[in-house]
Specification:
The protein is mostly beta strands and about 150 residues long. The protein has one helix and eleven strands, in the order βββββββββββα. The strands form two sheets. Strands 6, 7, 8, 9, 10 and 11 form a six-stranded antiparallel beta sheet that branches. Strands 4-3-2-1-5 form a five-stranded antiparallel beta sheet, with no helix packed on it. The chain is elongated and about 45 Å long.
Length: about 150
């Protein structure tokens, strides 16, 4: 949708969706997801703090990892969700850090989430270090798992 020009109601118009550009290709893993290719522009329908966003392309809609997307104007939503208490998450896929402020993760590792933001990057503590990791690689650990101390 084109943004209306010269109307006070443009900012509150629910039909104006945020547009983001795909910066990393993504191959869909499940039927509710869609594949992305670099340079594609998508409309954001829902931002979920899990790190998965529901987006619309010219021909389909579905969930994608927010870490594959960047705002067209280059700004990031620094919307941090402070966890009520530090939450423990386990790592679903290995991740190799690409930046100095990121943390490399091994599959099966348990990390503490300190801060969440809607861009799909969460600040975590792991082995005494703090850094950012993609939320889509983490899944919440249930209480029983933590109780099983060796």
């Amino acid at each position: 949708g084109k943004k209306k020009i010269g109307g006070d109601f443009a900012s509150t118009d629910p039909l104006v969706l945020d547009q983001y550009v795909v910066v990393a290709a993504y191959e869909k893993q499940e039927s509710s997801e869609i594949s992305l290719h670099v340079g594609q522009v998508v409309d954001i329908i829902e931002k979920n703090e899990s790190g998965w966003w529901f987006v619309s392309t010219a021909d389909e809609q579905g969930w994608v990892p927010a870490t594959c997307l960047e705002a067209q104007d280059g700004t990031q939503d620094e919307f941090s969700v402070p966890p009520d208490e530090e939450e423990k998450y386990s790592v679903s896929y290995p991740y190799a850090a690409r930046d100095q402020d990121e943390i490399s993760l091994e599959k099966g590792a348990v990390v503490e989430v300190i801060q969440k933001n809607l861009e799909g990057w969460w600040k975590i503590r792991y082995q005494g270090q703090e850094g950012w990791a993609p939320a889509s690689y983490l899944k919440k650990v249930s209480g029983e798992l933590l109780a099983q101390k060796p």
